[in-house]
Write a structure and sequence with these properties.
This protein has 113 residues and is of the alpha+beta class. The chain is built from four helices and four strands. It has one domain. It is extended and about 50 Å long. Pfam families: RVT_1.
Length: 113
C-alpha cells in the first residue's frame, strides 16, 4: 500500500492495481426485483446468545456474498457484457438488492443449527 498526498495536504492510502475488478450497475434489475425484507436480529439478542459461550465463530462476512449459489434459472438475469465476452454469475454478486438479505438469512440459518 502506498500513501499519496492530495491537494488539501491530506494523506490518502492507495493500492496498486494488480488485477481486474468488475463493477456492474444493477440499478434497473434492483428496481424490478421483488423485495424480501428479512428482519435482522437485535444486537442485545445476539449478545445474549453469546454470553457464557466458550467459543464464538465468525463466519466469513467479507466474502459471504460469494458463497451463495445463484439458481441457474436466475443467472441469465445477472448477465453482463465486457470486452472479453458475455458472462453470468454463478455465485451471488455484491450490489444486487437482495444480496444482503440472502446472505443474512443464510448466516442466521447456519448459526441456528
Amino acid at each position: 500500500m502506498t500513501v499519496i498526498q492530495n491537494e488539501k495536504n491530506e494523506l490518502i492510502p492507495s493500492r496498486t492495481v494488480t488485477r481486474w475488478r468488475m463493477c456492474i450497475d444493477y440499478r434497473k434489475l434492483n428496481k424490478a426485483t421483488r423485495k424480501d425484507h428479512f428482519p435482522l436480529p437485535f444486537m442485545d439478542q445476539m449478545l445474549e446468545r453469546l454470553a457464557g459461550q466458550a467459543y464464538y465463530c465468525f463466519f466469513d462476512g467479507y466474502s459471504g456474498y460469494n458463497q451463495i449459489v445463484v439458481d441457474p434459472e436466475d443467472q441469465e438475469k445477472m448477465t453482463f457484457k465486457c470486452p472479453f465476452g458475455v458472462f453470468a454469475y454463478r455465485k451471488m454478486p455484491f450490489g444486487l438488492s437482495q444480496s444482503f438479505e440472502n446472505t443474512t438469512t443464510q448466516m442466521v440459518l447456519i448459526s441456528n443449527i
